[in-house]
Design a protein that fits this description.
Layout (H helix, E strand, L loop, with lengths): L1 H4 L3 H14 L4 H13 L3 H14 L4 H13 L3 H14 L4 H13 L3 H14 L4 H13 L4 H17 L4 H13 L3 H14 L4 H9 L11 H11 L3 H6 L6 H10 L9 E6 L7 H4 L3 E8 L2 H10 L4 E4 L2 H6 L5 E6 L10 H10 E13 L7 E3 L5 E3 L1 H11 L1 E14 L2 E12 L6
Helix pairs in contact: 2-3, 3-4, 3-5, 4-5, 5-6, 5-7, 6-7, 7-8, 8-9, 9-10, 9-11, 10-11, 11-12, 12-13, 13-14, 20-21
Pfam families: Methyltransf_11, TPR_12, TPR_16
InterPro entries: Methyltransf_11, OGT, SAM-dependent_MTases_sf, TPR-like_helical_dom_sf, TPR_rpt
Protein name: Tetratricopeptide repeat protein
Length: 430
């Protein structure tokens, strides 16, 4: 278990199996080996090991909870819910099971039941900082009025008061304050954070996002890397909580209208691959599928998910510049929102594509007919249609197709997005 906690998974697996050779069906070894197998991308094996452990110790709340976590992270929400409820039958105040139950209920669009689970959680564990943080996100994501955003502010403040190292609560607090148009308060949160941690790129960038300093042309690499390294473990869970997140599916469907019938014939780059959500959608078209991301934590999760022929940790524009005419398709789902000026990336993508190759990406909508990229309070950039069009035209793309859709929700409301396709060597569509 010490090796497992130190993330030395190879040693931990060897020792768990030695225990099981000495004592067949030792339940703790089965349970934790099951967790480890899931961490290594062998989720089905993990499920069977924990189920075997539960045959030996059927009233083990932690084992039921961890079995639920595997189902949750594999997208099997009903199975996860059943496991969490079984854990709570064994231990009614098991706060991790209550927290996870609230998450999967929200993911199944059952907000009233989710809220009831959060109330039980904070009654059972009134000093559980993560519980206040999750409730704050729930209130903001499902806000029906301004009062829910105001309540989220209180939750984030309480989470940070209980756990002063919980910097995600600070960031969430500032976003809620900014949403309430309390911009000076939001900026002050980041200034105070920077005073305590002057080298941290997150408050530095987010202070600019609140208008406290000049906006950079793009989000700094260290900000993106740190944000997503810290977010990697909970990334898929956060997306599960937002069932309207559809960027991979929408972009893959858009590409399907211009690509040949899937025949595993194309070299495809998933640019900003994250945890690998696009891989199963792109794989039928791919002779070779490569993912690249600035966050090593995200790439690690994508490697466990599987589906790629290769995965690399690299800055996107530099990677494209190093691979000229290497790809038939470059797809970037929900990544270019961290770029302000799209010009350098568009030029690099054009050179990285082969003749008649396709670039597909998503952006958040900025209103207006001009050529603008605006840093928003979320730390992401919004772009006008004109900016995307002009950047692609200047890079040499033709057959440019820009449509509007909603790829996710924020604060309970759909986020307007551009879905963009452009072909190297085509002619611009009317």
């Amino acid at each position: 278990m010490k090796a497992h906690q130190a993330d030395d998974l190879a040693t931990a697996e060897r020792l768990y199996r030695e225990v099981l050779e000495l004592r067949v069906a030792q339940p703790d070894a089965l349970h934790y080996l099951g967790v480890l197998c899931h961490q290594n991308g062998r989720s089905d094996e993990g499920v069977e090991l924990i189920r075997t452990a539960l045959q030996v110790t059927p009233r083990h709340p932690d084992a039921h909870n961890n079995l639920g976590n595997i189902h949750k992270e594999c997208g099997r929400l009903r199975e996860a819910e059943a496991c969490y409820r079984k854990s709570l039958e064994c231990s009614p105040q098991h706060h991790h099971a209550l927290s996870n139950l609230a998450v999967v209920l929200e993911a199944q669009q059952r907000p009233l039941e989710a809220f009831d689970a959060f109330e039980k959680l904070l009654k059972a564990a009134p000093r559980f900082a993560q519980g206040y943080y999750l409730l704050g996100l729930f209130l903001r994501n499902n806000a029906q009025g301004i009062e829910h955003i105001e309540q989220s502010v209180g939750c984030f403040r309480e989470a940070y008061a209980l756990e002063p190292r919980f910097v995600q609560a600070l960031e969430a607090l500032s976003v809620s304050l900014y949403t309430l148009d309390r911009r000076d308060e939001a900026a002050q949160v980041y200034r105070d954070w920077l005073e305590r941690d002057p080298d941290n790129p997150v408050p530095r960038h987010m202070l600019a996002a609140c208008g406290g300093t000049d906006a950079p042309e793009r989000a700094p690499d260290d900000y993106v890397r740190d944000t997503f390294d810290n977010f990697a473990e909970s990334f898929d869970e956060q997306l599960l909580k937002n069932l309207d997140y559809r960027a991979p599916e929408v972009l893959a469907a858009a590409l399907a209208t211009v690509l040949p019938v899937p025949g595993a014939s194309l070299d495809i780059l998933d640019a900003g691959c994250g945890t690998g959500l696009c891989a199963p959608l792109l794989r039928p078209h791919a002779r070779r599928l490569v993912g690249v991301d600035l966050s090593g934590g995200m790439v690690k999760k994508a490697r466990l998910r599987g589906g790629y022929d290769d995965l690399e940790v690299a800055e996107l524009t530099a990677y494209l510049q190093q691979h000229r005419q290497a790809w038939d398709v470059v797809l970037s789902a929900d990544t270019l929102v961290y770029f302000g000026d799209l010009g350098p990336m568009a030029a690099a993508a054009h050179d990285a594509l082969r003749p008649d190759g396709w670039l597909a990406f998503s952006l958040e909508v900025e209103e207006g007919d001009g050529d603008q990229a605006v840093l928003s309070s979320s730390g992401r950039y919004r772009h006008t249609r004109g900016h995307a069009l002009h950047a692609l035209q200047r890079a040499g793309f033709g057959d440019i197709r820009i449509s509007e859709d909603s790829l996710r929700k924020e604060f309970g409301q759909p986020v307007r997005s551009w879905v963009v396709l452009a072909r190297r060597g085509g002619t611009e569509a009317p």
